Amino acid sequence: MTPVLYRVEARHQELADTVTIRIAPIAGQLADPKPGQFEMLLAFGVGEVPISISGLGNGSGELEHTIRSVGAVTKALCTTAVGDVIGVRGPFGVGWDLDRATGHDLLIVAGGLGLAPLRPAMLEALTNRHRFGRLVLLVGARDPGSLMFVRELEQWRGRFDIDVAVTVDAAPPSWRGDVGVVTKLLSRAPVDFGNTTAVVCGPEVMMRFVAAGLADRGVPPGQILLSMERNMRCAIGHCGHCQLGPEFVCKDGPVFPWDRMEKLMLVRER
Ligand SMILES: Cc1cc2nc3c(=O)[nH]c(=O)nc-3n(C[C@H](O)[C@H](O)[C@H](O)COP(=O)(O)OP(=O)(O)OC[C@H]3O[C@@H](n4cnc5c(N)ncnc54)[C@H](O)[C@@H]3O)c2cc1C
Ligand code: FES
């Protein structure tokens, strides 16, 4: 699949090392993605990396990606200016299956940058609010300065039809919220655990503890959905770079239910 050219329309510095870019197709357009899917973003002359979709253009063809600068390619993408052109392939993979959550409580649990791939799921749940029972968002971050999408978090917090709780690992005395890891919020989540679908994204260790904690509280393992990250090259199930046991993270995932991931998450990345 050849990359399609997209222009950077807007950029927002979320954190010192994290940027959200909004991109629009120049000519030709990729299929509309679903929440939880990812795309391969190409920085010309540098390389290509998988990045989740953090905002959907609602048919306009525009897309948002939230990128943390950790190496050569992500640095090049984070330093693009408005008007710059990048290549995009996708959308790839299986997204959040929100149909599973219809008629259930929906619990969204994000750790750090994990809020980015969950943001389209949250927005879709808010658009179709009537389909779900309780809607609960739990967010964990390193410290208050590491919180992303702060304006939206504040808006969501002000609504009567969702419950939002935010916790940080460490905070200055001025912080009035919770302190501690996000798993500490699970016991207080106002959901009926036996009738809940959970969507979880964050560092692997965080997802393991959250998934185990939810399963202990009675959430069926097939109703706990996690988004996995593995090295990728082709993104279409050919090269084997992303293989995890029998699963190809690029095409069978990146979203998997906990009953398929519990043992595989112990497999080290190659
Ligand atoms: C399905 C999927 C979705 C993803 N979605 C996003 C997203 O929405 N936003 C985003 O910023 N990243 C996302 N990533 C991770 C992103 O693809 C990697 O950060 C990127 O490939 C690193 O490439 P690089 O060339 O910049 O760094 P490299 O030169 O490959 O790596 C530089 C260093 O950073 C380390 N590193 C690599 N990935 C990460 C990481 N995720 N966090 C911390 N350290 C890392 C490497 O081990 C290495 O030490 C996703 C990955 C997958 C598989
Ligand atoms: S990235 Fe090539 S098989 Fe998944």
Summarize the structure.
This protein is an alpha/beta fold. Helix content is 18%, strand content 32%.
What can you see in these coordinates?
Helix content is 18%, strand content 32%. The protein is globular. The longest helix has 13 residues, at 115-127. The model has no long low-confidence stretch (mean pLDDT 92). A hairpin with a 2-residue loop joins strand 14 and strand 15. It has 270 residues and is of the alpha/beta class. It binds flavin-adenine dinucleotide and FE2/S2 (inorganic) cluster (FES). The site of flavin-adenine dinucleotide has 21 residues, from strand 4, strand 6, helix 1 and helix 2.
Poorly predicted regions are none
Share of helix among residues?
A: 10-25%
Structural class: alpha/beta
Q: In sequence order, what are the helices and strands, one letter per element?
A: EEEEEEHEEHEHEEEHEEEHEH
The profile of the biggest β sheet is: 7 strands, antiparallel
Placed side by side, the strands forming the largest sheet appear as 4-3-7-1-2-6-5
- In whole angstroms, the N-to-C terminal distance is 25 Å
Strands, total number: 16
The small-molecule ligands in this entry are: flavin-adenine dinucleotide, FE2/S2 (inorganic) cluster
How much is the radius of gyration in Å?
A: 18 Å
Helical stretch tally: 6
Estimated share of beta-strand residues: 25-35%
Q: What sort of overall outline do the alpha carbons produce when their principal axes are compared?
A: globular
Overall mean pLDDT stands at 92
